[in-house]
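TASK: fixed-backbone design
INPUT:
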């Protein structure tokens, strides 16, 4: 069982940061498996599952559906700790592990993820889903950390439109009102962030 204050923070804010779920050794192994997988997978992944950079130091921006081509990442997606955490966040409901993706924000990348609700990509009905993100690199305000709007998960599903950004293709039609929600930058280092609501 996870700390009740983490669960309460998630319900209040729509996100939570959980340090220490994976040990330093496990994180190193995940990073090693990822490197090995990328060497094999990027060339053979279906075209729609890979998004490349044009102007950054590293060429990969996003890789989708990794678990479909990697037994290791399929198993990681179903890790008991993750499944139990999400089950507790949803008050004991059955949990389905649905997908995996890698987001690589390389140095000198010039794009921004536009404001969006994740369900604009996943179309769950009802939209009872979370994104569980594992930070393999340090993720800071300077390096492009995820930014969340605290409490915005309690609102309704909002209209989205094409954003024109490769790998982050949908954005809110009307950007959020900066006065309405507290904006929180999730600085992560070997930590897990859970973001949910819509
Ligand atoms: O990395 C970001 O800025 C946004 C990522 C995101 O929306 C997601 O992982 O669902």
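OUTPUT:
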């Amino acid at each position: 069982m996870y700390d009740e204050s983490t669960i309460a923070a998630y319900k209040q804010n729509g996100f939570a940061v959980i340090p220490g779920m994976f040990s330093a050794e496990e994180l190193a192994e995940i990073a090693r498996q990822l490197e090995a997988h990328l060497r094999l997978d990027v060339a053979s992944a279906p075209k729609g599952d890979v998004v490349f950079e044009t102007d950054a130091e590293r060429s990969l921006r996003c890789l989708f559906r990794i678990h479909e081509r990697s037994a290791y990442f399929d198993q990681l997606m179903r890790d008991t700790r993750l499944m139990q955490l999400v089950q507790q966040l949803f008050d004991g409901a059955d949990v389905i592990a649905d997908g995996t993706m890698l987001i690589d924000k390389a140095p000198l990348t010039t794009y921004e993820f536009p404001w969006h609700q994740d369900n604009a990509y996943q179309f769950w009905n009802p939209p009872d889903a979370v994104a569980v993100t594992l930070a393999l690199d340090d993720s800071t305000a300077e390096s492009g950390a995820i930014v969340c709007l605290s409490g915005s998960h309690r609102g309704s599903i909002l209209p989205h439109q094409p954003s024109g950004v490769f790998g982050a293709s949908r954005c809110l039609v009307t950007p959020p009102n900066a006065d309405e929600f507290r904006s929180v930058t999730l600085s992560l280092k070997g930590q897990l962030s859970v973001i949910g609501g819509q």
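COMMENT: Residues 24-44 form the longest helix (21 residues).
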